[in-house]
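Hi support team,

I submitted a single chain yesterday and got back a structure, but I'm not sure I'm reading the token output correctly. Could someone confirm the output below corresponds to the sequence I sent? I've pasted both exactly as they appear in my results page.

Thanks,
R.
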Amino acid sequence: MFTEQRTNATANRITMTALALIMAVSVAGCARDRMTTGSISRSTPKAASNVATMSEPQLRSAADSLGRAYTQNTKDKATALRYASVLQMTGRVDQSLAVMRKLAIDHPKDREVLAAYGKALAAAGELQPALDAVRRAQTPEYPDWRLQSAEGAILDQLGQKDAARTLYRQALNLKPGEPSVLSNMGMSYLLEGDLKSAEHYMRQAVQASGADSRVRQNLALVVGLQGRFGEAEQLARQELSPEQAEANVAYLRSMLAQQNAWSQISDDNQKKRQ
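Hi R., thanks for writing in. Yes, this is the structure output for that exact sequence:
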């Protein structure tokens, strides 16, 4: 049995490692080749409709194309949403937030706009305003599982894990087996330092219909944080080139070594099983 202070210290180290890795993946994401499931036009604003699968050149091309379309009509909801999404994927978080802030002013009662605005605020670190925006978009009599999941993710970042997980469960009641919600639940446990539970939900997310590359890479992260680097690299190779997968795992090893986290994780996991 170990003390709560030690448990919290271990969880904090895991949290800092995980957050650093997530930040690194977000920054490096634009530089890696993404798995694509279909052709993506580079010449039209519609190119941004599946930004998670775009390579860096495609993102730059889409940002330029959407930027031109956006300046012609800043109130066009579809164009603004796609433009803000691409800007966020290219690391231009402040510009993405500016686009969404204006769109929320132009469409103050639109649930989709308010939800996207909340996510943009959260990405910029403005968590309380993000929470307000997402809650404003929700309607209790006809709840939207996407908004419940988004609110849960914000609450997790605010340290309110129990409230966050309640919302994830509610979202799963409305949308059973939804991989994005299962992945958010897994991330909730990851940030708490409960890697076994995190992996449980991540594996459910990966096996669910509609799981995308980001969900599978989250599983690789959780596996790697437990020191199973070979398995983590194998999972990463399904989404990235061998060189990129190896680089990601090397970075993970480096992060864990720098923070002396792996020995502590291994020790605590053994004691949890006793």
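A quick pointer for reading it: Residues 134 and 147 are 6 Å apart (CA to CA). Let us know if anything else looks off.

Best,
Support desk
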